[in-house]
Amino acid sequence: MRSEELGETLLPKRLALPIFASDPLSSVAYATQEILLVLTLGGTTFLYLTPWVAAAVVALMAVVVLSYRQVVHAYPSGGGSYEVVSHNLGASAGLVVAASLLVDYVMTVAVSVASGVDNIISAFPGIASFRVLMAVGCVALLAAVNLRGVRESGKAFAAPTYLFITGIMLMVITGVVRIAFGHGPVAASAGYGIIPADHKDTLAGLGLLMLGLRAFASGCTALTGVEAISNGVPAFRKPKSKNAATTMSVMGITAVVMFMGITALALTSKIHITDDACRLTGFPGDCHSAPQQTVIAQLASAIFGGDHSVLFYFIQAVTALVLVLAANTAFNGFPLLASILAQHRYLPRQLHTRGDRLAFSNGIIALAVVAGGLLWLYGANVTSLIHLYILGVFTSFTLSQIGMVRHWNRTLATETDGKVRSGAHRSRVINGFGAVTTALVLAIVLLTKFTQGAWLAVVAAIVLWVMMRGIRRHYDAVADELTVDDPHAESVRPSKVHGIVLVSKLHKPTLRAIGYAEAFRPDSLEAVSVSVEKESTEELEAKWEEFDVRVPLKVLDSPFREITKPVVAYVRSVRRSSPRDAVAVFIPEYVVGHWWEHLLHNQSALWLKSRLLFTPGVMVISVPWQLSSAPHADHPARRAPGSVRRGEPAGNRSAREAIKAPENV
């Protein structure tokens, strides 16, 4: 796609919802489960806390959605929390948010995919041994779809997201109707007993408080991905801010309704689920190897009449699919944020470049590689990965709300219009309350999850922050070094140019290189060869004299059969003798048409180039010689990725396949 076609990729609200909100919508599939897993550490006694924990999560969701609606309107250029914090709290604070979000986007992919695989295994327990392979394969598939472009990925992922919403709503409504008519669903695990993790029947005081806080922190996974819409405002159709704010409201209301419905039904159907199946009394099968069904799977089975009903498999299919596709939120948020950071010179500039389909290809690939590695390292285990999760999200939530409060303070200091001031006061109250609330949640998350693995996410964010600062310092130093202060002084011509043609034997590539060097008209020109074998050197000198080559030949002695060191030493000696002069080194090179031919030719010139390029005042010039196989690369073939952007005509792979192999110098 041409750059001018970028406008055609802008998203209507119906596609923006599954693209940017699939993560918070799908997280309801495991948020309730995470609350129950924590509360059952104390046995069944403390499940009565579930409604209160869920209510706190819902209230927090409402606060965050309202707060980010303010961000969408105030900063429509995208960048979300990073843009808000950088503009209002400074670059260092902005980098804290950026590092936290980048880590959290990686965790979004890992947790979503692992949870989706869990739901597949709940329906088909026999494939549990392929858990990691399936998870990594899903990440690769997501990356491939996203490389096709934002709009294409939206079309691919829209149907599963809407089917998931429909399926969950159908399940909730059916469950509520059954309860209303006195036939409430009962989960298969309702008869299981639960052995408390600490072998005590009760907890009290501080222990009970910590259990409730930990359950709340785990339930807050329902809020992950909420900020993605504020990052992606530029991807919406006009009016961008209005459409983004509307999409955020729809997302919040839908997620809250589904989460409340699932939690209520999980309690009424008496679902029992633990972090270790061996703590369940009455659990069928081997508790060490047999997987527990997820909360969604148990609900679908209880409501729709068993594990073999059509609607049970439908719920499991759409849940697994949307959980895997929920990672798409990160596949849109991570590359976009990385692109903004690269534009600000905090990440490599390659991450700012759009690919053939106008997607940020390098960011997509980087995210897929890191998330795939994390899934492999942790065995695609949701329970292990979840402890690394949500820390970054609440860091960005808190700092962005503080930044928005400062934004409204600045607005009120200069604004005189009464209507605008009234709106600013209201928005400041919303953002201020959001800042206090999310800061409290951040403290709870740190307190309850730090020793369980969250410290790794903290370390990763710190390392990333330091790395981004280092990258910025490097780019700034290079920019300062390359800044032109005096154009005339920087463009002074060298006093003389000494030409050197590197020679291994007298053949056509050598003669072409000599002719090309002469066309440059250097002040002096000589051919240089390295004597590795006496017989070969004598043969070269004899032919040189026989053919009466018009350029003098200089032979460098190499008693230890080295090629690079004598040439580099000689070139540097020429430079030292005339520091104001320039040296142009001409290297004949072969061009071949097959990759395997590259392996058959000596790579000495590559080493020479790498050494000579570090020598000031030395220019290295390649003189190509196309071997008979080289035209093969011009034969019609399938267009390669990137060929259009690189300027290759359709069916021409020459620029991609032609490999330069230096001759044996």
Give the arrangement of secondary structure elements:
Blueprint: H1 13-26, H2 28-39, H3 50-74, H4 80-89, H5 91-123, H6 131-147, H7 150-180, E1 193-194, H8 206-219, H9 228-231, H10 240-268, E2 280-281, H11 295-304, H12 310-343, H13 361-377, H14 382-386, H15 391-414, H16 418-449, H17 454-482, H18 487-490, E3 497-502, H19 508-519, E4 524-531, H20 534-546, E5 553-557, H21 564-577, E6 582-592, H22 595-598, H23 604-612, E7 618-626, H24 654-657, E8 659-662
Parallel strand pairs: 3-4, 3-6, 4-5, 6-7
Antiparallel strand pairs: 1-2, 6-8
Helix pairs in contact: 1-7, 1-10, 1-12, 2-8, 2-10, 3-8, 3-10, 3-15, 3-16, 4-5, 4-15, 5-6, 5-12, 5-13, 5-15, 5-17, 6-12, 6-13, 7-10, 7-11, 7-12, 8-16, 11-12, 12-13, 15-16, 21-23
